[in-house]
Design brief:
alpha+beta; 2 domains; 9-stranded mixed beta sheet; 18 helices; globular
C-alpha cells in the first residue's frame, strides 16, 4: 500500500487514510476504510494495540442489531431512542440519531467478516427510564483462541493484571482482548492496511485549511510525514494520563487512580487538532468509577457489590452502594473532602474477600500486610483503625442491619432496581428479603479504601454527525475526523449503559471511514 520515500530522518509516506490510535473505534474505522478499497495506515504510540478497549469487558452498546434480534433480547432502535431521549433530552440530538441509525450497520459490517462474531449477553442498562432494558442490550465479541492471531497475539494488550505484570496472554482472549484481536484479524484480512506500533502522531499537517496528514515519530526519534489523501481519523483516547492537563481542565482524580494503561492517552492528538482551530467540549468530564488500591497502590476497578456498605470519613453511608459505577463515581466526587477515601465495610461472610467484582482481583492477606486494608474483631476497633467515629460506625452498622431485616433501605433505596439486583448473590435471595441488603454479622470485620477513579476522560474534540471535527466557529475542519474518547461524548454528563463508550467509538469510527471512502 502506498509508498515511502526516505530523506534523511524525514520520510514521506502516502496513504488514503491515517488512523491514529488502536482501540475499538480506531480499528473499526481502519477496517471499514480498508474494506472499501482504501489504503490505510494505523499508528499506535505504545508497543501494544487496544488501549483502554483491551482492558474492557467489551460490552458494546450497539442497539437494534441482528445480534439482539437473533438472541430475542427485546431490543430495538426505537426503544434505545426513547431511553436516550429520556436521559439526555435534546443534547447532541443529531449525533445521537446518527449513532442509532448506523449502529446496526456497524454490527452487520463487522460480522460480514469471517473473523468477527458477536453475541448478546445480559448486562442491565444503568437507569430505569422509558426504553431501558432490565437485562440490557449490549453485544460482546466471541472469545478468540490465541492461536488464531498467530504472531499478532503479541501485539494485543493483555488484561490489566497481566499487562501490569508484563505477562502475555494465556490461551484464550476474552473481553476487550477478543474484541481487539478480532478487529485486528479483520483489518489484516483486507490486505490494504499497515499497523505500526511505537509510533506517535506529533503534529497534523494542513494545506489551505484542509488536514492533509500528520507528522509521526517512531520510538527511536525518526520522524516521517504521512500524507493522507482522504483524511485522518483521531481515535487515540483521551487525556486521563496527563496530570497537568487534568488539573487545567478541572478533571477530578488523577493518573494514579485511572484505569487507562500506563504510558497512554496524554491528549497529544487532541492538542494537535486544537492547534488547527478545532473546538472542544466536556473537558472536565470522565467515565467515572470507584477504584480500590492493590497492595502496591495501583487501582482496581470495583463494581457489582454483593454485600457490605460504604462510609465516608464520618462513618456514615452516603449513597446506594449498588449504583452503576459511573453514578457511584459521581457520588464520590460530590464530596471529596469526606470521601477521599471512602471505605467499604464488610464482614467475613466471603472468607475475607471483598463482596464485589474487582478488576484486577485484590488479595486480602497481601492488602492487610501492606496496610491498605484493615481487619478487626469489633466495629469499634475497626473504626479506630481507619479514623472514623466509633459510635457512628456502630450506629451505621445497626441501621444497615435493621434495613436488611426488613428488606427496605429507606435512606438510599438499595435493591430496588434491576441493576442493583443483577449482581446480588442468588443465595442471598433465599435468606434475606432484599438480596442486596445482607447484614454484617460475621466478624472479623474489614475496611477497604475506595476512591474516585475513571475509565478514561470523555471530553474532547467537537464533531458532527459524520464524525467530522468542527472548528470553534462551528464549521467543519476538512480532512479531520474523531471518534472514541478523542471526541466529546454524545452522552454528555451521563453514562446510559454498559458499552456506550465502545459502541459510540465504533459507530463514529465507521462513519468517519465511510465519509472518507465517499470523499465527503
Amino acid at each position: 500500500m502506498g509508498t515511502t520515500v526516505e530523506g534523511g530522518r524525514q520520510g514521506l509516506r502516502e496513504c488514503d487514510v491515517l488512523v491514529v490510535g488502536s482501540g475499538a473505534g480506531a480499528l473499526t474505522g481502519a477496517y471499514t476504510a480498508a474494506s472499501a478499497g482504501l489504503d490505510v495506515l494505523v499508528v499506535e504510540r505504545t508497543p501494544l494495540l487496544g488501549g483502554t478497549s483491551a482492558y474492557s469487558g467489551a460490552a458494546c452498546w450497539l442497539p437494534g442489531s441482528e445480534v439482539q434480534r437473533r438472541s430475542d433480547a427485546g431490543d430495538s432502535t426505537e426503544s434505545a431512542r426513547s431511553y436516550l431521549h429520556a436521559l439526555l433530552g435534546d443534547f447532541e440530538q443529531e449525533r445521537r440519531e446518527a449513532f442509532l441509525r448506523h449502529a446496526p450497520e456497524v454490527v452487520a459490517t463487522l460480522e460480514a467478516n469471517e473473523h468477527v462474531a458477536f453475541a448478546w449477553r445480559a448486562f442491565p442498562d444503568y437507569f430505569e427510564a422509558p426504553g431501558s432494558l432490565p437485562l440490557g442490550r449490549s453485544v460482546m465479541p466471541a472469545d478468540l483462541p490465541l492461536a488464531e492471531l498467530g504472531a499478532d497475539a503479541a501485539l494485543v494488550r493483555p488484561a490489566v493484571d497481566r499487562d501490569r505484570g508484563a505477562r502475555g496472554h494465556d490461551g484464550m482472549l476474552d473481553g476487550g482482548r477478543a474484541l481487539i484481536g478480532r478487529l485486528l484479524l479483520a483489518v489484516r484480512s483486507t490486505g490494504r492496511a499497515e499497523v505500526r506500533t511505537r509510533t506517535a502522531m506529533t503534529e497534523l499537517t494542513a494545506e489551505e485549511g484542509r488536514v492533509t496528514g500528520a507528522v509521526v515519530t517512531a520510538e527511536d526519534g525518526t520522524r516521517s510525514t504521512v500524507r493522507a489523501r482522504r483524511g485522518v481519523l483521531l481515535a487515540a483516547g483521551g487525556f486521563e494520563r496527563n496530570a497537568q492537563r487534568r488539573t487545567a481542565e478541572g478533571v477530578p482524580g488523577g493518573p494514579a487512580t485511572s484505569m487507562a494503561p500506563a504510558g497512554s492517552n496524554d491528549g497529544g492528538p487532541m492538542d494537535a487538532a486544537t492547534a488547527l482551530g478545532a473546538a472542544t467540549g466536556l473537558l472536565d468530564e470522565a467515565w467515572w468509577c470507584p477504584v480500590s488500591p492493590q497492595p502496591d497502590g495501583a487501582p482496581s476497578f470495583v463494581l457489582g457489590l454483593r454485600g457490605g456498605f460504604l462510609i465516608d470519613a464520618e462513618g456514615r453511608r452516603f449513597a446506594n452502594e449498588s449504583l452503576p459505577y459511573d453514578r457511584m463515581g459521581r457520588e464520590l466526587a460530590a464530596d471529596a473532602a469526606l470521601r477521599d477515601p471512602a471505605h467499604l465495610v464488610f464482614d467475613s461472610r466471603e472468607g475475607g474477600r471483598m463482596p464485589l467484582i474487582a478488576v484486577p482481583d485484590i488479595d486480602p492477606e497481601a492488602s492487610l500486610a501492606a496496610g491498605t486494608w484493615h481487619r478487626a474483631d469489633t466495629l469499634e476497633e475497626l473504626a479506630r483503625s481507619i479514623g472514623v467515629p466509633e459510635a457512628r460506625l456502630r450506629a451505621t452498622a445497626e441501621e444497615f442491619n435493621a434495613a436488611a431485616a426488613t428488606g427496605e433501605d429507606a435512606s438510599f433505596g438499595r435493591g430496588t432496581s434491576a441493576y442493583d439486583r443483577f449482581f446480588a448473590d442468588p443465595a442471598a435471595a433465599e435468606e434475606h428479603p432484599n438480596p442486596c441488603l445482607v447484614p454484617l454479622t460475621e466478624p472479623p470485620y474489614y475496611a477497604a479504601p475506595v476512591r474516585l477513579g475513571d475509565l478514561g476522560t470523555k471530553g474532547g474534540l467537537r464533531t458532527d454527525a459524520a464524525a467530522r471535527v468542527l472548528r470553534t466557529d462551528g464549521t467543519v475542519l476538512p480532512g479531520l475526523y474523531a471518534a472514541g474518547n478523542t471526541a466529546a461524548s454524545l452522552s454528555g454528563r451521563c453514562y446510559p449503559g454498559p458499552g456506550i463508550p465502545l459502541g459510540t467509538a465504533m459507530t463514529f469510527g465507521y462513519l468517519a471511514a465511510r465519509g472518507m471512502a465517499s470523499g465527503a
